[in-house]
Amino acid sequence: MAVKEIRKLGDPVLREKCKEVSRIDFSIRRLVKDLADTMYAAPGLGLAAPQIGVVQRVLVADVGEGLIVMINPRLLKAEGTVVEEEGCLSLYEIKCPVPRAQSILVQAYDLQGRQFQLPAEGLLARVIQHEADHLDGILFIDRASPADRRRVLMAINEMEMARQSGEGL
After folding, report:
1. Lowest-pLDDT choice from 59-68, 127-136, 149-158
2. Which residues on adjacent β-strands are paired with residue 78?
3. Ordered domains of the chain (ranges, CATH)
4. pTM
5. Are strands 58-61 and 115-121 parallel, antiparallel or unpaired?
6. Spatial CA neighbour of 49 closest among 67, 68, 28, 64
7. Dihedral through CA 109, CA 111, CA 112, CA 113, nearest 10?
8. Does the annotation flag 96 for ligand binding?
9. By the 8 A CB rule, do 61 and 44 touch?
10. For residue 73, is the peptide bond before it cis, meaning its omega torsion is within 30 degrees of 0?
11. What is the spatial distance between Cα 86 and Cα 93, in angstroms, rounded to a whole number?
12. Known active-site residue 131
């Protein structure tokens, strides 16, 4: 099991636009294993490569139906809008309402290099959109209302100050 450290808000890698994967080789297979191990250990519903410090367009997700691996995902279609609470392993335990498409169609490659399309709705659609945003350096708070964004950032600052003063130990 290869659980990696999850990068937190403030780490510059979370704001980088990830590079396309040009070849699916051992390093990409290893990256997918590290992502899955880290996601399950956290526990989370999804994880993108920059969250463990790798600037490549790879994400994993599992909303209870088995592991989904997406290499170079591309959103082809998005329909409807729904606003629901969302959180992120890179932003501690803090959540806020975020608008996302209700249903999507995404195209990606699997670990065998086969291109596929996946229609998704509800929670799976939300998780894929959230993780795909990470590949473009976008965090869920960037999509939240200005008031919710301020509230989340203030809460994170308070948590960091408590941790640094020893209260969070």
Report:
1. 149-158
2. 104
3. 12-165 (3.90.45.10)
4. 0.93
5. unpaired
6. 28
7. 30
8. no
9. no
10. no
11. 10
12. yes
Is position 18 annotated in a ligand binding site?
A: no
Which tokens hold the place of 158? 């308070």
pLDDT tens, 79-134? Answer: 999 999 999 999 988 899 999 999 999 999 999 999 999 999 999 999 999 999 99
- How far is 33 from 15, CA to CA, in rounded Å? 23
CA-based R_g, the chain, Å: 16
pLDDT digits (tens, 9 = 90+) for 12-21: 999 999 999 9
Phi and psi torsions of 48, nearest 5°: -115, 150
Q: What residue has token string 């997700």?
A: 61
Task: Establish whether 130 is an annotated binding residue.
Answer: yes
- Using CA atoms of 95, 97, 102, 106 in order, give the dihedral in degrees to the nearest 10: -50
Q: Which two tokens stand for residue 154?
A: 């203030």
Catalytic residue among 20, 84, 121, 131: 131
Give the dihedral sign, CA 25/70/67/53. positive
Ramachandran category for residue 72: left, alpha or beta (phi over 0 → left; psi -120 to 50 → alpha): left
d(CA 60, CA 23): 18
